[in-house]
Amino acid sequence: MNKSKTIAIVCNYALNPNRIGGMDRFYVAYNKRAKELGLDVHWYFSDYKETIPFFKDLTIFNSENKSLELFFINKIQKEGFNYAILVTHFMALCTPFFKQAKKSGIQKIIAVDHNPRPLEGFPLIKKLKNNIKGLLYSRYIDQFVGVSKYTKKHILKDYGFFLKNKTRVIYNGIDTSKFKKRTEVHKNKFIVTSHLRFSKGIQDLLKAVYKLPNNLKGSFEIDIFGEGPYENELKELCVQLELTNNIHFKGSSSHLNELFSNYSYMLQPTYMECFSLSILESLAANVPVITTTVGGNLEVVTDNVNGFIFEPGDVMALRTILKNIIEGKLQITNETNLLIENQFNLAKMVENHSTYLQ
Known about the structure:
Order of helices and strands: EHEEHEHEHEHEEHEHEHEHEEHHH
Distance between the termini: 19 Å
Oligomer: single chain
């Protein structure tokens, strides 16, 4: 294997035939661009249960939900794979893994940070451990990439401000051509697209809906697309609050790019976010977003311009926004897709990431 012609992309990410989202499209487009540059790409994912036609052009290695770091290092050692470049996505930064990878002969390592931080920040012990890891292992990473200004700020805060000169921002982007644009207002139809876990704050949405005046509860509906470990708790809460006529759990869908246009707003009451692809996707479909101030959300959503903003956990603020929209007192009429098409498109994301391959 020609060391100068093969790169490895290691992603702590499960490929799912029922979810073809923004990152999935990025992987395919990035693979195509790398091949145009004369490079072969080996992809390492945490799970890939079946052959998915969408990924047919990718050379994929599956760790089967076992340690992806160990799986990758063992693959190099046992099969003699030599890589000129390693790029990681969704992986913890500044760990012994990067030292092992560098010592295997990899010339350049790029670590892309998509990881959100807790709303209240890391505990003191965690902060100290991160600082130590930065001192010990950052030397083995040639470039840190944050997917938002928020992420870059926290890379430096977590691992050391001495990393400033080798840390940059590359925003996520989406293929806007894949999204059906909303051309008419679908009054009081809301969509949630989210992994169903506590940190996404969907329980706050249910509580906000519960607090709406009873006379409004027959005039709107909310469809929730997604699966996750908090799903049963959310469904039970929905029953307890007698919201089953308003809230509908739809499971995962691989056709969200077509479904967004059927809604008036997307709801994202999250406590933790890095830089949300769901927000980009909704805006690309010309559907405004109701979301919180966390992470990189404010780098793309402007209050009263392409969405509405509230503080995470503020159930009453969310309730007020919903009430005013349902009563016709609040409305976004601007075209929201143009910002995404111009600044957060997939081609721009791929080109920025591919600069490390040349």
